[in-house]
Amino acid sequence: MGRRTKINVALLKAMRKEAGLTQKELASRIGISRETVSAIENEKPETINSIEAEVVSAWHITCQQRVSSDTGAEFLGHIMKYFGFSEQNIINMAKKLSGATKRD
Predict the structure, then answer these.
(1) What is the pTM of this model?
(2) What whole-number distance in Å separates Cα of residue 49 and Cα of residue 69?
(3) Is residue 85 included in any domain, yes or no?
(4) CA-to-CA distance for 82 and 75, rounded, in angstroms?
(5) CB 15 within 8 A of CB 67
(6) Total tally of structural domains belonging to the chain
(7) How confident is the model over 13-64, as pLDDT tens digits?
(8) Burial 53-74 (b: 16+ CB within 10 A, else e)
(9) Which of 47, 65, 45 is nearest to 56 (CA)?
């Protein structure tokens, strides 16, 4: 499952902003630092090259209820293509992440 495209950081940033979240709020909700969110959004190569599927999926899950269905669908399609995921991979990851959130 190799990465086929470059991660669309403009889409990540747009989704966060459309959701009305600051970098700090998003970082807190998905368990990374504000500096990491900033590095991702500013395309720092060392951060972009090591971004994990769990971080991108958590970003999507955190923002999806607050953005338009078009934005959510565009983002989901992009991360599926980027990570080579099927729809079932995304569903399984979402279940895993929401289970972790409920325990906190």
Answers:
(1) 0.71
(2) 28
(3) yes
(4) 10
(5) yes
(6) 1
(7) 999 999 999 999 999 999 999 999 999 999 888 887 788 878 888 888 888 8
(8) bebbbbbbbbbbeebeeebbee
(9) 47
* Distance set, CA 99 to CA 48, 56, 92 (Å): 26, 17, 11
Range of the domain at 74: 9-103
**Residue 2 belongs to a domain:** no
Q: How far apart are the first and last CA of the chain?
A: 31
Q: How many residues does the chain have?
A: 104
Q: Residue 41: give its domain's CATH number.
A: 1.10.260.40
Contact (Cβ atoms closer than 8 angstroms) between residue 63 and residue 21? yes
Q: Please give the C-alpha separations between residue 30 and each of 2, 56, 66, in angstroms, as whole numbers.
A: 24, 9, 15
Amino acid letter for position 9? V
> Among 29-33, 72-76, 95-99, 100-104, which is the least confidently predicted range?
100-104
Please state, in angstroms and rounded to a whole number, the distance separating the CA atoms of residues 60 and 42.
18
Question: Could you give the CA distance from residue 33 to residue 36 in angstroms, rounded to a whole number?
Answer: 5
